[in-house]
Design brief:
By secondary structure, the chain is α/β, with parallel strands linked by helices. It contains 14 helices and eight strands. The N and C termini lie far apart (76 Å).
Length: 325
């Protein structure tokens, strides 16, 4: 090896060392931690019979969930039927929830799409007052490669100082954010703090948990898989059923966090039938039917979504009576 080659190798090694050291310094002294742990509520948007947003019902729901174990809220995301909301409605919902919560728990707000530049623009110029982090879904329909997903989320992370939670839900987006890409983003982007994993693939979840940095968390995106995912090391759930049953679901998670797996498993098994019924006619049709049965909201969705079928509703009512809900 020539002296010139040795110098080049030393320079390359020194450059890699400095980059790694600088990244660890940033993580240590300028750490952005994940605060979205425990029971997160994927908040629904109640509508009146005429299709308008029922803001009064929304505020009653938020207070009910706060009183019964909610650890954080996820607003203006899939369960909130956000694609059908106007800009004015989204702004009012955000401001009402922020004012109602009064910083008692963190608020995560949906901010994603399949046009990277538009998402970046929204993050730079949108109103995020009172918001503690953003949930950003994988780009849908255009089906980017893993490198495209990496660059998309890297640009999003660079556009905001807020913590970013990735959202992987291939059943809706048509593309899966693979474990290695998730871990790469977690290592390279300081403010990407967690992922809402709704792939339904426990092997993928386990791979992320095994290889992730210590300051990056996995959050369940499937109510039915929350028990096994928390058992594997996930830190909580962004829950649909939590809209209706926050006390019961938060109890299960807290028991697991304390290592009390047997009583937590019993709670999980109590709701197995409800989990499947919640999504058989699409989300949030199932949980809106539950909330209607409980007297919280009208059973109204905006097209193209429609209320759950009568047969599904009847079976849900029977199970709720059996569970004394």
């Amino acid at each position: 090896m020539t002296i010139k080659t040795k110098i080049f190798c030393f320079q390359s090694f020194f450059y890699i060392f400095i980059r790694t050291f600088a990244r660890e310094i940033r993580r240590t002294f300028f750490m952005v931690y994940n605060i979205f742990k425990g029971l997160g509520i994927a908040l629904v948007t109640p509508f009146r019979q005429d299709g308008s947003v029922d803001y009064d019902a929304l505020l009653r729901l938020v207070e009910y969930q706060l009183d019964n174990g909610a650890d954080f809220f996820c607003i203006l995301a899939t369960t909130g039927e956000t694609p059908t909301l106007t800009a004015e409605e989204k702004s009012r919902i955000k401001n009402l929830v922020v004012d109602k919560v009064q910083a008692r728990v963190p608020i995560l707000m949906g901010c994603g799409g399949n046009n990277t530049a538009a998402v970046v623009e929204e993050l730079k110029n949108g109103d995020f007052k009172g918001i503690d982090g953003v949930l950003s879904v994988c780009p849908y329909y255009n089906k980017p490669s893993q490198e495209g997903l990496y660059q998309h989320f890297k640009a999003i992370a660079a556009a905001t100082q807020l913590p970013v939670v990735l959202y992987n839900v291939p059943g809706r987006t048509g593309v899966n954010l693979k474990a290695e890409t998730t871990v790469r983003l977690a290592r390279d982007c300081q403010n990407i703090v967690a992922i809402k994993e709704a792939s339904g693939n426990l092997e993928q979840v386990d791979e992320i948990i095994k290889n992730k940095p210590r300051d990056f968390d996995v959050i369940s995106g499937d109510d039915s898989l929350t028990f096994p995912m928390v058992s594997c090391g996930a830190v909580g759930v962004i829950s649909v059923i939590g809209n209706a049953l926050p006390r019961e679901f938060s109890k299960m998670i807290r028991l697991q966090m304390r290592g009390e797996y047997e009583p937590a498993r019993k709670i999980h098994h109590r709701f197995t039938d409800l989990f499947s019924l919640l999504f058989v006619d699409g989300n949030p049709a199932g949980v809106k039917a539950m909330l209607h049965e409980m007297g919280f909201i009208e059973n109204v969705l905006r097209l193209p979504l429609v209320p759950t079928r009568i047969s599904t509703l009847q079976r849900m009512s029977e199970i709720m009576k059996e569970l004394k809900i």
